[in-house]
Amino acid sequence: xxxxxxxxxxxxxxxxxxxxxxxxxxxxxxxxxxxxxxxxxxxxxxxxxxxxxxxxxxxxxxxxxxxxxxxxxxxxxxxxxxxxxxxxxxxxxxxxxxxxxxxxxxxxxxxxxxxxxxxxxxxxxxxxxxxxxxxxxxxxxxxxxxxxxxxxxxxxxxxxxxxxxxxxxxxxxxxxxxxxxxxxxxxxxxxxxxxxxxxxxxxxxxxxxxxxxxxxxxxxxxxxxxxxxxxxxxxxxxxxxxxxxxxxxxxxxxxxxxxxxxxxxxxxxxxxxxxxxxxxxxxxxxxxxxxxxxxxxxxxxxxxxxxxxxxxxxxxxxxxxxxxxxxxxxxxxxxxxxxxxxxxxxxxxxxxxxxxxxxxxxxxxxxxxxxxxxxxxxxxxxxxxxxxxxxxxxxxxxxxxxxxxxxxxxxxxxxxxxxxxxxxxxxxxxxxxxxxxxxxxxxxxxxxxxxxxxxxxxxxxxxxxxxxxxxxxxxxxxxx
Length: 480
Known about the structure:
This protein is mainly alpha-helical and about 475 residues long. Helix content is about 30%, strand content about 5%. Among the domains are: about 155-270, no CATH class; about 285-455, no CATH class.
């Protein structure tokens, strides 16, 4: 019988034995049963304690807003933990970028703060010595204006304008009589005249139309225009030497009193243009807005008194470039600014269903819109109309075609009436040849013109002062 074989150790790996510090330490024994209530649990073993050589515990990284207080864009910190990744040196590009970002943020904050302060000051405007509880609050917002010299509701023309050169005592006396004209200061605003959006901060002509077209203002302007026209001539001019006042920087300032009153009379007469009302009981309660308000509200067009330009066509085409419709509805508009003596209220205006589209005869155009197109068509002057974008002189055929491209989107009968009137005018004057359209390939819808009030609003309906005086059945609602 042979000896027992020795176990092989090939491929054998001994099981590691964890060394315990408390090996050989016996668990504490309770010597008395009375101590059980004092020590309900046994003491922790040493094996549960750290030796101090483990990796550091995981530290939760701070959020982004915790780092704002320690952000130093212009210096590089040299102190960081050993486990943090190495930092790259900050470049000038990063410094400039962060600097611009900071300046932008500060600018936005400063602009918002200034806007809030100005708005607060507007709400609490100074009423001054001339505050009357039952009337408008008179205030002045013109450049270098002084409430004690001139303000809304009592404009002082000789105080704000330059003095007249010694020429005619009658003209000087007539000009001196215009010391308290009951109108709003916006009758002097020129930014609306050419129908151009000069700036985002231009005043809204639709808001100030109600203040400009008060009965007392229209009456005073017509009377002042008649007095100046009878007593002053073009030889009476302003003396601009040593003048520093409200109109010092006005590039369009007229030469003398006659030019001033002619321009203001024309501006007020155009601003107060309205749709002739239809006889109705409700006309005494809800009047139609002025056309300058309608054009701004419907098409974002500045309806200025000088119609001989191409301004506003792009805005009209932009609003009608897609086919859509609006259901019939009631609209109202209310605005009030006691600091600027402005109060507008058009309540419960019924708006019939409207349609929009880029094709011919696809857009609903109201009376004011057709009147705006007609005035443009009839206002071309040789070598005076320029392209708004390029500044080039626009010829009469090009002028008419560009207006037709937008205007023929309106209803065909109303548009063809205005178009035919303009073509007949220029052909009779010799500015437009008979065959000027032979190369035009675009189809044009011709619809027989229906009787309408537009045929009766000719140049004879405007008096010498530039004011509208239609027949009683077409007379405006407001004050004429």
